[in-house]
Specification:
The chain is of the alpha/beta class. It has helices at 2-17, 62-70, 114-124, 129-142, 157-169, 187-202, 238-244, 250-264, 281-285, 308-315, 319-334, 337-357, 379-385, 399-407, 421-430, 436-441, 453-475, 500-522, 524-530, 533-539, 544-573, 582-606, 610-627, 639-647, 651-663, 670-697; strands at 22-33, 36-47, 51-55, 77-82, 99-102, 175-179, 207-211, 223-228, 231-236, 365-371, 392-396, 413-417, 445-448. Bound molecules: adenosine-5'-triphosphate. It is found in: Membrane.
Length: 698
């Protein structure tokens, strides 16, 4: 204790003489959450090479202050320097390896082992394998952690907190910012942690700012700051604080300060003085009392400028950080094999269901047949035999039964032949002029239930096909005489009997890839931000651009597997034709996947909670699917909406994919390249937007 007192006295002399540089300096700092003013013109100085204990009741703004110091929260007024420069100053390794930050939230990846966690931060801080291994062994032993292969999710609350502390200590940072590191830690280990902090600051190179609810343990700090309602009531060596208030413990000194403060009202609370300059009325007026920590004035605030080269280097993403984040994502995926399989199989399941269920001809449709011809050789019987039996199920009935049945919804149509159908049809073929009655009697009469357009269209198509086949077979060279005078020649592109599946598949493949990618990424930042992981990575020196790129590259791996499986199914199993270049097909689908990832990243960076992120992802699903002309042609969309449709990411892309697959076109065709251009444009826009939002929000 005596030694402590001596240290404090030395500090006093140094600071008074202005010899002691500040590791952290906060001047007139204000920060609000909406209308709630949390930091209120706060001044604080953490001297270099010392432990600073920040004390205060719950909700007084300690965590907010630490977040402002590390730069994850922006201040609304005032000025902060950390190790000589403002946080996030270009070229300054704050955030970065100079700072070890242990946030109040545990902020650890649950799917990581202890070893994964420390390796992850080791990679980000650029430690060599040997350095990481040595530090890891020391920290596991020092913090009494279980086996390094233990999964974080299986650790107790106290053990997780210790791993979190280990991650902050890993790179031997110059400044340690610890938000309640000793909560839930047993007294023996608490004493050990404090002793370690005392040891590391002894050399004068390392500084520590620590918050704790155990006020008495802060007596081991060189300086304590007592905070209340966003202000610093007192700041100085613990012994001096106690002496000032004639208190035997720091806790009672603090209680007394709070009581005095409450009586005086917060307006007059002093700032930046040794010990509180006293909430007692006398001392509040005592201007002769010299502050130990020099209160800075606006003139003291230096102007910081960075060379453009340093600025440019600062924004260039570091491959080391991207690689560390990608390895992190891969490790987490490996630990969740069920989820990974689901991600790989979901698009295949979706495309299979789509090819099986959408666009095919209706099957087993009940149709009532009223045949008034009785002869076995009648043309009506022959014509009916050409009707496709898999699609149309014929039920022979009388006229009244057939109409009763269709009205009751039992049949989709009634086909009726008059009793003279054969002779009248023959007359129509052989005689140059026939009466209207002959034409009527030689026609097949059909009544349809048109409430289901697809079924009605199919019945019309099947009847025409049956008639064509019938006249071809029965009349041979004379068939042209009764043929409909419109002839559809061999198609230029596509096949004659093409079904709707062919139209819908390219757009569906793009939509499935896009929406799965949105789903994969929309929640990634939301959960990481909520658990404090995003902030922690940022303080470790990972930039927004690096985070965005790492997510993009990792998800690219997942969507590549998804796309390979999708193509195998559509091309080989469902035999969807591809007349064009497979490389172009794959490129366009991958780029659409990237659009989905980028859009997911925008949602993820802009939205804070899972529910809103899910709503945003789901909210765009149907409007985009419908307006993009994926399930129904764009040409059917009314004009004002069609313009909107054309700027959406999937409209031109779906058209381009259809042109490649069914027309065999290449990039020289405008309809193909504009699909690529629009997709690339959206990719760039979404990625930049996500990076900017992330940057603004950290
Ligand atoms: N994201 C936020 N949005 C709105 N208000 C917030 C937010 N974070 C904190 N606050 C409010 O700011 C005040 C200070 O919170 P802070 O977490 O800084 O307190 P603290 O001193 O660290 O408390 P504790 O010791 O319990 O951790 C509290 O009233 C809290 O409700």
């Amino acid at each position: 204790m005596e030694q402590k007192h001596l240290e404090s006295s030395t500090m006093k002399t140094d600071l008074e003489a202005g010899n002691c540089s500040a590791a952290i300096h906060c001047h007139d700092v204000c920060r609000s959450y909406g209308k709630l003013k949390v930091l209120n013109n706060l001044n604080l100085t953490v001297p270099q090479g010392q432990i600073y204990g920040l004390l205060g009741p719950s909700g007084c703004g300690k965590t907010t202050l630490l977040k402002c110091i590390v730069g994850t929260l922006k201040i609304s007024h005032g000025h902060i320097t950390v190790l000589g420069k403002p946080p996030a100053f270009p070229g300054h390794e704050v955030p970065g390896r100079m700072v070890g930050y242990m946030p109040q939230d545990i902020a650890l990846y649950n799917e990581f082992t202890i070893s994964n966690t420390l390796w992850f931060y080791g990679r980000i801080h650029g430690l060599s394998s040997k350095e990481t291994e040595t530090r890891m062994n020391f920290l596991i032993d020092f913090l009494g952690l279980p086996q390094k292969n233990s999964l974080v999710r299986n650790l107790s609350g106290g053990q997780r907190r210790r791993v979190s502390l280990g991650a902050a200590l890993l790179q031997n940072p110059q400044l340690l910012i610890l938000d309640e590191p000793t909560v839930g830690v047993d007294p023996v280990l608490r004493a050990k942690i404090w002793q370690h902090l005392v040891d590391i600051v002894r050399g004068g190179q390392v500084s520590v700012i620590i918050t704790t609810h155990y006020i008495e343990e802060a007596r081991q700090a060189n300086t304590v700051g007592l905070m209340r309602n966003g202000r610093l009531l007192a700041e100085g060596p613990p012994d001096a604080v106690m002496k000032q208030h004639n208190a035997a413990t720091l806790e009672s000194a603090f209680l007394q300060l709070c009581e005095d403060f409450d009586q005086m009202g917060s307006k007059q609370s002093p700032q930046g003085r040794l010990i509180d300059s006293s909430p007692s009325p006398d001392s509040m007026r005592d201007e002769s009392r010299e502050p130990i920590l020099r209160k800075s004035t606006p003139e003291d605030i230096p102007k910081y400028k960075a060379d453009w080269k340093v600025r440019a280097r600062h924004v260039i993403p570091k491959w080391r950080n991207i690689a560390a984040l990608m390895i992190k994502t891969m490790v987490r995926m490996r630990r969740m094999p069920g989820s990974l399989c689901f991600q790989f199989l979901l698009p295949v399941i979706q495309i299979c269901l789509m090819c099986l269920c959408i666009g095919g001809d209706p099957k087993g449709i009940d149709v009532a047949v009223v045949n008034n011809e009785s002869s076995p050789s009648a043309y009506s019987r022959s014509l009916l035999s050409f009707l496709d039996n898999t699609s149309v199920y014929q039920v022979s009935l009388s006229h009244s039964e057939a109409f009763a049945g269709i009205r009751n919804g039992e049949y989709w149509g009634v086909i009726e032949f008059g009793e003279n159908f054969t002779s009248y049809l023959t007359k129509r073929m052989l005689q140059p002029r026939v009466s209207r009655d002959v034409v009527e009697g030689g026609s097949v009469h059909v009544w349809l239930d048109l409430t289901n357009r697809q079924i009605a269209l199919m019945l019309q198509k099947k009847l025409h096909e049956a008639f064509e086949a019938f006249i071809e077979t029965k009349l041979g060279s004379l068939s042209y005489m009764v043929a409909v005078p419109i002839k559809f020649e061999e198609p230029i592109y596509g096949k004659k009997n093409t079904d709707f599946t062919i139209f819908v598949t390219p757009g569906a493949v793009l939509s499935i890839t896009f929406y799965l990618a949105v789903g994969l990424t929309a929640l990634s930042f939301v959960l990481e931000r909520k658990e404090g992981l995003l902030d922690r990575c940022w303080v470790a020196g990972v930039s927004s651009l690096e985070t965005t790129l790492a997510h993009l590259f990792s998800q690219l791996f997942v969507i590549s597997v998804q796309i390979i499986l999708l193509l195998i199914f559509i091309l080989l199993v469902f035999k969807i034709p591809n007349e064009g270049s497979l490389a172009l097909v794959i490129s366009l689908i991958v780029l659409q996947g990237v659009t989905g990832i980028s859009f997911g990243l925008v949602i993820s960076s802009a939205i804070d909670d899972e529910q809103s992120a899910n709503q945003a992802a789901l909210g765009i699903f149907y409007p985009n699917l419908i307006i993009s002309g994926v399930i129904w042609p764009v040409e059917c969309i009314p004009y004002p909406l069609r313009y909107l449709s054309l700027v959406l990411p999937q409209t031109y892309a779906s058209e381009a994919l259809r042109c490649i697959m069914y027309r065999g076109w290449g990039l020289s065709r405008m309809m193909v390249w504009r699909g690529f251009v629009v997709t690339l444009g959206w990719n760039t826009f979404f990625l930049m937007l996500a990076t900017v939002i992330l940057k603004l929000r950290t």
